Amino acid sequence: MQSKGDDGRLDVMQDLPKIVRDRLNSTSAQTGGHPAPGHPDADLLAAFAEHSLPERERARLIQHLANCAECREVLTLAQPPLEHVTAVMHSPGWLSWPVLRWGTVLALAVVVGAAVLLRHDSKPASQPYKVEMETRTASRDHSNQPAVSGTRAKQPAVTETPKNELKNRLDSRREKDAASKTATADSKIRLKEIDGTSRADKIPARSTDELKSNYGVAAPAGAELAAAPPPAPLDKKADQENQQAQDKQVTPYSAANAVQETGTVNSAAPALKAEEVVPGKAKEPLSKSKTEGAGTAVGGSIGMLSSAATDSARTQNRRVAFQNLILPIPRWTISVTGSLERSLDAGKTWQKITVDDHAAFRAVSALGPDVWAGAAGGVLYHSGDAGEHWTRIRPAVNGSSLTADIVSLEFTDTQHGKLTTVNGETWTTTDAGQTWQKN
Amino acid sequence: MTDSAQPAIAFSAAIDSLAAELYKKSSGERFGITWQEFASILCEVGRKYLPAVADEAAACELYLNLRVEELVLARACASGNEHAWETFLLRYREKLYDTALHIARETSAARELADSLYGDLYGTTTRDGKRTSKLASYTGRGSLEGWLRTVLAQEYVNRYRRQRRLVSLDEESDEGTQFAAAEPEPSTAVDPRVESATDEALAGLPSEERFILASYYLDGHTLAEIARILGVHESTISRKLEKVGKSLHKHILAGLGRRGMSRRQAEEALEVDVRDLRVDIRERLAQDSTSETFPEKKVAPAGDGSG
């Protein structure tokens, strides 16, 4: 019934009675032809086209558009050509060598960690396994709380939204990697420095999200990545109190700074809820871990932990550590509407990841935090941080660029991968997408 | 900074703090925009988009969603900052010409369109001896690139409107279908009950559904074009159109029933005549005084009208 015409219109739609079209047009002329007080300005139309208007303004604008042929036409003409779409969260200079070199090292470490975790997940329930567990470095000088204005955007968000959970997890793994290499705090500092998200000179859209969270402002339609805002504490004082309350929540967590432990955990651990880790039961594997993890204890921290075995703060600490541990690897899929979706709870729930509003994704390949997504029209994006930031990659060989629809993506490691297109082209890369070969 | 350079405009404490953070984020100093100027710009944007009795939360929401970096760049260009202009040209010059070509679909017309906009952006027109740049009207609600595309599209539509007024009927036929004169459609007497029942059913439609109907049936846009504008998949628009069509049909029939028509009479009145398939949208649009000369890019597929 719904056969498509040459111009992309459905033939079935043609049977709308003429009288309806007539009246639709003439009522537009009568009621909406002169929507008060006039046409929306270019700013509003552009924001509408970019799906960044708040709902109430969007509703008002669409009411105007429903009755104004001129604005509808302007809107259509102003749509960007598909090939000119740029990455929403493009970080300039991402592919510069120093960053790439360190990033590759980190990505490899994270991939290895992810592979280990995935392997453990797939083992039978009776087979125990060992995993390294480390509390996330969260050293914060509470006495030097930054002022409300100016620096708040750079503070790590404490609220455990899925996005933050993911970042915590990534940070934790990066730090773990650094600690295992040098067993010094300095290496962690260096790693923090090369982490693009913590650089002061980069203030990406993410910082606005944090600002929004701090000011209790809901993100506009389409900004699914924005952190869920707390109840709006617009008053500075209330905001500060809120921040202090959040700091208190993480105090036990940060008390075990830089402590590395090895825990023996049954493979049922992923199903374990944090609340189920009662002190008595949790104590035993963690005590074992201290003897097994020789050389991993730093300074007097481990002594402090063993002496405070019954302390509730420690239980809380373990609970948080377990929470971090049992978080699954992000999973990726393409929705029926061609948008990219990520799950942080092993596929139970999926959240849409806005990479490119105009791209219809067809394929995704993920190795830990290294994610590649291909769309129609040869649109290819890469994220090295599990989808937090994306970079548009434009494969080209001898002046010939990739324009055909990408139908499959396969990366065997962070460097080597191939993609195939709808017209049978195969593009391969051996250097994480910097250069490509076309077959 | 806020201590030493309070804006002339009185912000509340929360907004003042937010504005200071936004100023830092905007890199306004790089383009010579001072804190006071930035605060004035925010106030101007607030006056334009916030209701007279807006609360603090609404103001925060508005300001947080502004593209402050691009806003500062545009305003710095408008005030003649050279560094800002260099940055602007580097970022947008090529895109502007590409967009003009995408809109005008013809090289010389595209260049003329883009050059004309450049003139406006630079501020060739003077008012009271001062150069006024169109960039000064950018408020950062959407991206600067999106705003430039929209301004180009508006300029194109205005030009087309002016041009169409000047084109003679002979020239119209030479230009092709875009300028073709509307064929007169035989006026047929419509039962006023059908009109009122249809109006009633249309009035009950949500705005978005009405927008989809108008885009598809009046403007001749494709499902993909409408889907892209609304940020949904093409199949969603297809489903909605089908659903709205059925719903309208049902409501009109019910309305006709309330107006004393039997079910059969009502269905006959609504029955699709093959002649209906030839809908001259141009003429319909011409009825709309606000868009009387608005171009119609695509004519809805029409039957041959022969029955």
Write the layout of secondary structure elements.
The complex is a heterodimer of chains A (439) and B (307).
Chain A: H1 18-32, H2 42-49, H3 55-67, H4 69-77, H5 97-122, E1 129-134, H6 162-182, H7 185-194, H8 205-215, H9 236-255, E2 260-265, H10 279-292, H11 301-307, H12 312-326, E3 331-334, E4 340-343, E5 351-353, E6 361-367, E7 370-375, E8 380-383, E9 391-393, E10 396-397, E11 400-401, E12 406-411, E13 417-421, E14 426-429, E15 437-438
Antiparallel strand pairs in A: 1-2, 3-4, 4-5, 6-7, 7-8, 8-9, 10-11, 12-13, 13-14, 14-15
Helix pairs in contact in A: 3-4, 5-6, 6-7, 9-12
Chain B: H1 13-26, H2 35-49, H3 56-64, H4 68-78, H5 82-104, H6 107-122, E1 126-127, E2 130-131, H7 144-166, H8 169-175, H9 192-203, H10 207-218, H11 223-230, H12 234-258, H13 263-270, H14 281-287
Helix pairs in contact in B: 1-3, 1-4, 4-5, 5-6, 5-7, 9-12, 11-12, 12-13
Characterise the protein shown here.
The complex is a heterodimer of chains A (439) and B (307). Chain A has 439 residues and is α+β, with helices and mostly antiparallel strands. Chain A is 38% helix and 15% strand. Chain A is built from 12 helices and 15 strands. In chain A, the strands form 5 sheets. A 4-stranded antiparallel sheet of chain A has the order 6-7-8-9. In chain A, strands 12-13-14-15 form a 4-stranded antiparallel sheet, with no helix packed on it. In chain A, strands 3-4-5 form a 3-stranded antiparallel sheet, with no helix packed on it. The relative contact order of chain A is 0.11. Chain B has 307 residues and is mainly alpha-helical. Chain B is built from 14 helices and 2 strands; from the N terminus they run ααααααββαααααααα. In chain B, strand 1 (126-127) and strand 2 form a beta hairpin. In chain B, helix 9 (192-203) packs across helix 12 (234-258). Mean pLDDT of chain B is 77; it is low at 1-8, 177-184 and 273-307. Chains A and B meet through helix 1, helix 2, helix 3, helix 4 and helix 8 of A and helix 1, helix 3, helix 5, helix 7 and helix 9 of B.
